Amino acid sequence: MTLRRFGRRNPTIVIGALLLLLVTAAAIAAPLIAGDPLLITPVDRLLPPSEKYWLGTDHLGRDVYARAVFGARISLLVGVAVAAVSVVVGLGIGLAAGYWRQVDAVVMRFMDGMMAIPAILLAIALVSLNRASVFIVVVAISLPEIPRVVRLVRSVVLTVREMPYIEAAVSGGSRGRKIVIRHILPSTVAPLIVQATYIAASAILIEAGLSFLGAGVPPEIPTWGNMIASSRLFVARAPWTIFAPGTLLALVVLAVNLVGDGLRDLLDVRLARRM
Amino acid sequence: MRAGAEPILSVEDLHTHFFTQDGVTRAVDGVSFTVAAGETLGIVGESGCGKSVTALSIMRLLPPGLGRSVGGSVRFGGRDLLTLDEAEMRRIRGDRIAMVFQEPMTSLNPVLTVGEQIAEAVMIHQGKSRHDAWARAEEMLTLVRIPDAARRVGDYPHQFSGGMRQRVMIAMALSCHPQLLIADEPTTALDVTIQAQILKLMLELKGRIGAAILMITHDLGVVAETCQRVIVMYAGRKVEEASVLDLFDRPLHPYTRGLMASIPRRRPGAPRTRRLQEIPGMVPSLREPLSGCPFAPRCPLATARCTAEAPPLEQHGAGHVVACWEAGRIGVS
Questions:
Q1: 8 Å CB contact between A49 and A243
Q2: Could you tell me if A156 lies within 8 Å of chain B, comparing CB atoms?
Q3: Who among B65, B103, B112 is closest to A101 (CB)?
Q4: DSSP per residue over B42-72, as a string?
Q5: CA-based angle B187:B192:B197, to the nearest 5?
Q6: Beta-carbon count within 10 A of B39 CB
Q7: Is B314 exposed, middle or buried (0-12, 13-18, 19+ CB in 10 A)?
Q8: Can you tell me the mean pLDDT for B27-50?
Q9: What is the rounded CA–CA span in Å between residue B210 and residue A184?
Q10: Residues near A232 by beta carbon (within 8 Å), at least 6 away in sequence
Q11: How far apart are CA A183 and CA A189, in angstroms?
Q12: Are β-strands B180-184 and B212-217 bridged in parallel, bridged antiparallel, or unpaired?
């Protein structure tokens, strides 16, 4: 299939992926395409967008464009890290719980308990116990996501383990571990990819929320969340300080969700595909 | 069993129960038989008579927590398979005893190539390297007459037709040269021409590898074509056992006679519009205790004794065993 035909059939994936690609490229190339996000220039406080400051300056005279570009690093990093951590951990637990009944009863009750913990509260608790860092934020957001992944993986395992080909593999002398890893795991990949995108999107939002509350990454690191937080007092005088991070946040989350929706339609064999 | 042939598998008084919420189902209720090396033994009976459960009991593949063999023994290679631990059992499965399942469309994993699936058992049991096992997979595909095996070995199951997939299943089962091949309705899901090809292939490869076959089927035609001896099962019990010729010549159990009568056939001279015969009634529930002969409620010859007392298996001629009080009368008529 040519790229163009793929694009016509799956416009959501292509649009979402292009947006993400753009933001990712900007985040990686941040030091090359933007100035110092921490440089305070008191005389240039709250300036509207101009040739020197493309998106204006904030109340400390910092370049909003530079801060927004550097802030993308944190958002994307947190999104990807949370998705990776929760998928890897959840996959392992879900496979074990789905295949071995003894594990199932204990682990699933524990997961039910974990689902009751709100991510924001857990993060606030963890951050107040430790020094704020990106690592803590990733852990705090990942923990409540894990049970969702476990439930998804477990449901796939429960379906697949009853398939005749699993019985055939057992009758060939394969041991449980091999059955799970070789015969069952591949069936979980497609739904997990889709789930991972949704987790990434929600992680980006939760991270912004945490930064907004001051419970996220250390305040000296520019993030979209703490940019919005520090600008909210000046929104009437300098609305651009909120527009830039707010718009970027919305766009990135939209892009990730577009990709997720597109992948779901593409990978889900149960949905009739238009030919 | 033919004289002189040493049995490789001997099932003694096997009892397998399913423990469900509604009570205990006695799926296999005291079944005994032997399979000699290189022999093909058929087990026939209608759905739910316990023939598949017998096979799963031998392989110890009963659904855990639900089905369990509660009595009897399954002797294979000098050991009782029912007493082996799981690791020892795994060494036998796929190596000494292999199985071919009914559904070729779902018995192969859709996400793995057929080569990987055939090679898996070879790597486990013969400790071969990935490369050698792959070569073996290719060789096995050639053996089951998949054209262009060298290329097809890397294909996925959906790229094969039903008959081809069953060939792949046979290749998988025979890849470690098992002594016993359990075929659970191997041709039921296939159309008639493919059935004949698959059966022919199985018999031919059996001869080449020297395996015995336990052929589980509800199709007397399959039995007639492939087996030397047959066991007829009903309601979890063995009701008749005989050589194939003897069974078709002189069926003694009324159930066996009923099965034979319900085969559609055209005899020269017979009226063409004859209705197909059926066996009236239903299989008894295996949850309630059975007193007497399980077939008595459906049997045209049943007497008061049949409902009161279960008939033992008795010898009626060489190698012909039947569990019926009236067998003597049937044999004479």
A1: no
A2: no
A3: B65
A4: EEE--TTSSHHHHHHHHHT-SPTTTEEEEEE
A5: 70
A6: 22
A7: middle
A8: 93
A9: 34
A10: A242
A11: 12
A12: parallel
pLDDT at site B135: 95
- Give residue-wise pLDDT tens across range A234-262: 988 889 899 999 999 999 999 999 999 88
Select from A101, A103, A171 the residue whose CB has the most chain B CBs within 10 Å, as the one to mutate to test that interface: A171
Residues of A in contact with B109 (CB under 8 A): 163, 165-166, 169, 183
The whole-number average pLDDT for the span A98-103 is 90
Which residues contact residue B187 at a Cβ distance below 8 angstroms, ignoring those fewer than 6 apart?
B166, B194, B195, B198, B199, B217, B219, B222
B292: burial class by Cβ within 10 Å (0-12, 13-18, 19+)? middle
Both tokens assigned to B51: 């023939």
The closest of B136, B146, B137 to B166, measured between CA atoms, is B146
Residue A118: count of CB within 10 angstroms of its CB? 11
Tokens of B315: 């010898």
φ/ψ (deg, to 5) at B105: -75, -30
| Spatial CA neighbour of B213 closest among B235, B229, B189 | B229
* C-beta atoms of A174 and B120 within 8 A: yes
> 3-class SS at A143?
helix
According to DSSP, the β-strands at B7-20 and B67-76 are: antiparallel
- In chain B, which ranges are E strands? 7-20, 23-36, 40-44, 67-76, 79-80, 97-100, 180-184, 212-217, 229-234, 237-243, 314-315, 321-322
The token pair at B170 is: 């046979």
CB A140 within 8 A of CB A122: yes
In the DSSP assignment, the letter for residue A57 is B
| pTM confidence score | 0.82
The three-point CA angle B172-B63-B157 to 5° equals: 30
Sign of CA dihedral A67, A72, A75, A77: negative
The superfamily (CATH) of domain A36-44+53-267 is MetI-like (1.10.3720.10)
How far is residue B120's CA from residue B110's CA, in Å, rounded to a whole number? 15
CB–CB of B248/B324 below 8 Å?
no
The pLDDT tens digits of the residues spanning B94-118 come to 999 999 998 888 899 998 999 999 9
Going by C-alpha positions, the residue among B283, B308, B281 that lies closest to residue B293 is B308
Establish, for the pair of chains A and B, how many residue pairs have beta carbons separated by less than 8 Å.
68
Least confident segment among A55-69, A123-137, B206-220, B222-236: A123-137
Does ipTM exceed 0.95?
A: no
Pull the structure tokens for residue B310.
Answer: 């279960």
d(CA B142, CA A34): 64
